[in-house]
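Memo to structure team: turn this sequence into structure tokens by end of day. - J.P.
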Amino acid sequence: MKRLYIVFVTWAFFPAVLSAQSPATTGHPDSLLIQVRTQMHKANSLFETGKLAEARATFERILPMAEKPWLIHYYIALADRYLSQHYYESDTDLANRHLDAGIDQLATSIELKENFAEAHALQSSLYGMKIALSPWKGMILGPRSKNAMDRAVKSDPDNPRVLLLSGISALETPPMFGGSSKEARELLLRSVDRFETYQPVSEVHPSWGRYEAYAWLGQVAVELDDNDAAKAYYEKALEINPDGGWVRYQLVPALEKRMGNN
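Reply from structure team:
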């Protein structure tokens, strides 16, 4: 089954480039980080690729003054993940460029803070996305993805985003290579459970993922032919993030069409 990623086609008025013009950066670095992170997540939810590219560029401008540069490299890579998803089907070359850039950013983040589980998990995810675009690369990138996730789990096994990205990997990996919808469901259920009590290390540390966890649980439910559960998960995702265009404009309509055909 072909999974529904965030695909940006009809809303793409601005090209996402690796160094876009960004607004002036003034103020305390942590305050700027939070402001730009909010812009990034909102732009991603609303399919605003131009603003998402601006957020990425602003992170780069913040980097020289950052107190936690490893964290800025992580957020640049997260912006690259989002940008690659927007172009996953419409421009695979650009999607791959963002994935490669994100992997490089995470390598730097890990070099600066080796035990940063979030960076290892995100790097694993980006490798997995490159495999989805070019399956023939799986022989090389598959072990890299697994090794990165193993390091993430070892460093922080109960982190909800580590569990989320592990669950996505389990769903996206073909069964012949160890993928499993049931394992994905278990990991994603653990993720949403951890999100109920999880508190970031600080206000600048990653806090995203709860909306995505419910969205992916919905896709697992579809995979397991449980349309009612999928509907409930998508409703919960939109309760968390009403701006979530991926769920509202892609996953829900696809589910409604599926239910209408049954």
